[in-house]
Amino acid sequence: MLRNIKSKILASIQNKKINIFLLFLVLSFVVLLVLKLSTTYTNTITFKINKINVPESYLVLNDSSHTLKITLRTSGFNLLKYYFKKPNVDIGFNENIEKSKDYYIWNKHQGFSDLNLQFDKDIEIVSIIPDTLKFRFDVNAVKKVPIKLNSKLSFSVGFDLLDSIKIVPDSIKIIGPEVLVSEISFVETDTFRLKDIKSDIDSPVLLNLPKDNNLIFSENSVEIKADVDKFTEGHLKIPVTVINVPDSLKIKYFPKKLYVTYYTSLSNYNSISANDFIITCNFNEVEKESEYLKPQIVQQPKDARNVKLSQEQIEFIIIE
Fold first, then answer.
1. DSSP assigned state of 284
2. Which of 16, 272, 289, 319 is deepest in the core (most CB within 10 A)?
3. In terms of domains, do 124 and 161 share one?
4. From CA 82, how far away is CA 138, in angstroms rounded?
């Protein structure tokens, strides 16, 4: 019994010694790391270039070889961040850069101040290689093209669009070489799919843009908007008028009225009346020896759709 207690006490003391040793080991490593990172180093780092503020009328052609090797002098703490992500620097094309016939020419003497502003104050730029970069450019064409909606829509029973679908914006601007821009006359959306629609539509959709790095597009998505309402069928009895009957003739025709059926939204149903429709028969269009007039709807309200007549012919007789 006493022997077991003694063994447990010795084991506990030994574990504490190990834990204390590990703690001091970790602390020593942390202190050493802090001292190392606090030391000033001079390192050369390769930076990728971001081209910014390029005039809209020009296109700087892509060149993956455009990098700058910048030697920096600073603490290890400041250098550490450049090893955890791909470093890059901005080169502006609106100032501190020269333009020749075919190239934009950047040199480190003109561009040093812009570069220096992109680094922390306690980071010193020692050297920049190369001291000159040439960016070939081409003249851009600018073209505005319409957007075409590619959609697959289905509505809940009795629901439909109140008006046409709106695309916002309805066109985009394309910037790029003339030879490429001239081939594009419109841009389609990705397929816009909605099922069982019974409320207004207001949703984004991506554009199906050409995959070409030399082209710039003002938008990569648009908004699809539309008003939706419940629809119903309406029926009205409308008088028929015969026109262009010669003064020398008198005719009788029947029926004098025809039913029209139409499709309209519930919100507009009560605003539609018989006075909104006009049905005429043109006597000049009667075929020789025919006994029938052809009725036509010459006026109907804009909110009525799929308007149909109850019959396609009207009988008439000439009175002697």
1. G
2. 272
3. no
4. 33
CA 227 to CA 265: how far, in whole Å?
A: 11
Both 216 and 248 in one domain: the answer is no
Domain count, the chain: 3
3-state helix, strand, coil in the chain (%, to 5): 20, 50, 30
CATH number (domain holding residue 120): 2.170.120
Looking at the domain assignment, is residue 243 inside a domain?
A: yes
Give the predicted TM-score (pTM) of the model.
Answer: 0.56
Strand (E) or helix (H) holding 7 = helix 2-38
- N- to C-terminal Cα distance for the chain? 140
Q: Are 193 and 245 found together in one domain?
A: no
**For 30-81, how does the pLDDT look when each residue is reduced to its tens digit (9 = 90+)?**
444 444 545 788 888 889 988 888 887 787 876 656 888 989 888 877 787 8
Q: Do 75 and 123 share a structural domain?
A: yes
Q: So what's the pLDDT on residue 121? A: 85
φ, ψ of residue 216 to 5 degrees: the values are -120, 135
Among 176, 195, 226, the domain boundary falls at 226
Query: What are the pLDDT digits (tens) for 223-265?
Result: 999 999 999 999 999 999 999 998 888 889 999 999 999 999 9
Measure the CA–CA gap between 141 and 180, rounded to whole angstroms: 9
Span 182-203, mean pLDDT? Answer: 94
Domain residue limits at 236: 231-319
Report CA-CA distances (Å) from 287 to 4, 90, 294: 125, 80, 10
